[in-house]
Amino acid sequence: DAAALLHAMGSGARAVPVLIVHGTADNVVSVRNADDLVTQFVGVHDTIRARIGQGPLTLREAPPMDAHGHA
Questions:
Q1: What are the φ and ψ backbone dihedral angles of 19, each rounded to 5 degrees?
Q2: Long-range CB contacts for residues 42-48, cutoff 8 Å, separation at least 24
Q3: Which of 33, 34, 54, 71 is deepest in the core (most CB within 10 A)?
Q4: pLDDT reported for residue 22
């Protein structure tokens, strides 16, 4: 959970950017893995941001792209 991760990072805990990409044609890895990563990332970073008096993260989801990289 977020609290355990922050404790493990100690005073070095800081917010960093992340880009999470999951292909729509992936038949092996569940898209839930990406969803779980977002949930964990937001929990940790919102906790860090709250410690320094900032509001929660704003998430933006990119539009789906076709096989040629077009939205």
A1: -125, 120
A2: 43/1, 43/2, 44/2, 44/5, 44/6, 45/15, 46/2, 47/2, 47/3, 47/6, 48/6, 48/13, 48/14, 48/15
A3: 34
A4: 79
Report residue 43 CA to chain centroid gap.
9
The tokens of 70 are what?
């077009």
38, 59 contact by CB (below 8 A): yes
Confidence of residue 63 (pLDDT cuts 50, 70, 90): confident
Q: What CA–CA distances, in Å, run from 61 to 5, 16, 28, 29, 68?
A: 25, 18, 22, 19, 19
